[in-house]
C-alpha cells in the first residue's frame, strides 16, 4: 500500500480507538503512525525496506512499550502502526516473523497498484475527509493553532519518503505516477493530502507569528522606559 492509504487508514483506526478510550489523539500523530513502519527507508541500505519494521516480532514489543509509557494515547497510536501491517497484508505480503523466519511472508496479495488497492486508498482518503469534518480536525487547516504547525511532521515524512523510495529504485517519479490509471488516481490523492497538510502548516505558521508578536508586545510593555 502507498503512503496515502497508510496515513489515512491509520488516522481512521487510531482516532476511532482514541475516541473509544476517551482520549484525543492529535491529527498529526494519527497520520504519522501509519507511515512509521516505512521509516526504514530513511536508513537504507543499512536497513532493508519491508523487513524488521514490518514484522510482528519487532512491532509487538514497540506496541507494548508505547502502551506502557504513554497509556491510552500510546495504545491508540500503536493501533495506527498496526494498521500499516494490515494494509500491506491486504494488497501484498508482510514478513510476519522476520528475522527469525525470513521466509514467513503472508498476505492476500491483492496487488499494488490494482483496483483493490486504489479503492482502499482513495476510499480511506474520502473517509478521512468526512471523519475530520465530524470530529473538528478540519479546523486545523482553517484556523491558526499549534497543532496545525505539527502537521508539518507527517507532511515532511510523506514527501521525503516518497522521494527517497523513488530515488533508491531509480524510478522516474512523474512518469511512474501517471503511467497507469490506478497510479494516477492515487497520485492525485497524495497531492490533495499533501496540499491539505500544507494549508494546515501555513495556519500553524500564522499561529507562531501571532504568538511571537504577542510576546514581543508584552515584552516591550513590561520593559522600563528611559526617563529624562
Overview of this structure, please?
With 228 residues, this protein is mainly α. The chain has one domain (3-211). It is 66% helix and 2% strand. It contains 8 helices and 2 strands; from the N terminus they run αααββααααα. The chain has helices at residues 3-20, 27-33, 56-91, 115-135, 146-150, 152-168, 173-177, 181-222, and strands spanning 94-95, 105-106. Strands 1-2 form a two-stranded antiparallel sheet. Helix 6 crosses helix 8 (181-222). The longest helix is centred in the C-terminal third of the chain and has 42 residues, at 181-222. It is globular, with a radius of gyration of 20 Å. The mean pLDDT is 90.
List the helices and strands and how they pair.
Elements: H1 3-20, H2 27-33, H3 56-91, E1 94-95, E2 105-106, H4 115-135, H5 146-150, H6 152-168, H7 173-177, H8 181-222
Helix pairs in contact: 1-2, 1-3, 1-4, 2-3, 2-6, 4-8, 6-8
What is the gist of this entry?
With 228 residues, this protein is an all-alpha fold.
Task: Supply database-style keywords.
228 residues, two-stranded antiparallel sheet, mainly alpha
Helical run tally:
8
Tally of discrete structural domains: 1
Order of helices and strands: HHHEEHHHHH
**Termini Cα gap:** 71 Å
Q: Determine the fraction of residues in helical runs and give it as a percent range.
A: 55-70%
Number-wise, the strands total 2
Q: How much of the residues is beta strand, in percent?
A: under 5%
Let me know the average pLDDT. 90
Strand order of the largest sheet: 1-2
Quickly give the structural class. mainly alpha
**Main sheet record:** 2 strands, antiparallel
Oligomeric nature of the chains? single chain
Overall shape: globular
Rg to the nearest angstrom? 20 Å
Low-confidence blocks of residues: none
Amino acid at each position: 500500500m502507498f503512503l496515502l492509504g497508510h496515513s489515512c487508514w491509520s488516522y481512521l483506526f487510531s482516532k476511532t480507538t482514541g475516541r473509544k478510550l476517551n482520549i484525543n489523539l492529535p491529527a498529526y500523530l494519527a497520520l504519522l503512525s501509519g507511515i512509521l513502519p516505512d521509516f526504514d527507508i530513511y536508513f537504507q541500505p543499512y536497513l532493508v525496506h519491508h523487513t524488521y519494521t514490518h514484522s510482528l516480532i519487532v512491532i509487538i514489543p514497540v506496541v507494548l512499550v508505547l502502551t506502557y509509557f504513554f497509556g491510552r494515547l500510546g495504545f491508540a497510536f500503536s493501533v495506527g502502526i498496526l494498521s500499516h501491517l494490515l494494509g500491506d497484508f491486504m494488497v501484498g505480503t508482510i514478513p510476519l516473523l522476520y528475522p527469525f523466519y525470513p521466509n514467513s511472508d503472508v498476505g492476500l496479495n491483492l496487488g499494488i497498484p490494482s483496483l483493490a488497492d486504489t479503492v482502499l486508498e482513495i476510499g480511506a482518503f474520502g473517509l478521512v475527509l468526512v471523519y475530520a469534518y465530524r470530529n473538528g480536525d478540519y479546523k486545523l487547516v482553517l484556523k491558526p493553532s499549534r497543532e496545525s504547525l505539527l502537521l508539518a511532521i507527517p507532511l515532511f515524512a510523506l514527501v521525503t519518503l516518497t522521494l527517497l523510495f523513488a530515488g533508491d529504485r531509480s524510478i522516474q517519479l512523474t512518469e511512474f505516477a501517471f503511467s497507469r490509471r490506478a497510479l494516477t488516481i492515487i497520485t492525485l490523492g497524495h497531492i490533495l493530502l499533501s496540499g491539505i497538510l500544507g494549508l494546515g502548516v501555513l495556519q500553524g505558521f500564522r499561529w507562531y507569528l501571532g504568538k511571537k508578536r504577542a510576546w514581543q508586545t508584552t515584552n516591550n510593555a513590561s520593559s522600563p522606559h528611559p526617563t529624562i
